[in-house]
Amino acid sequence: MAAEDFWNRKARGLLKAELKRREVSYPQLAEKLQTMGLQETTASITNKISRGAFTAAFLLQCLEAIGCRTLRLEEPS
Asked: Sign of dihedral through CA atoms 32, 38, 44, 48?
């Protein structure tokens, strides 16, 4: 279970970092996802991100919604 927790935390951190870089809040993300035809609410986004246990598809949808074309897996030293 510890390995799964590590990867969930990493996925959550990556998504939160991209949202912060673009100054996109959860309500704004919900709006952007809805314009893409996805039925996400602020509450559902908050729950998914806080758990960190979301699908790769959800991660890609969020990144597309906020205009992220590249993803940095590690912060530069």
From this structure: negative
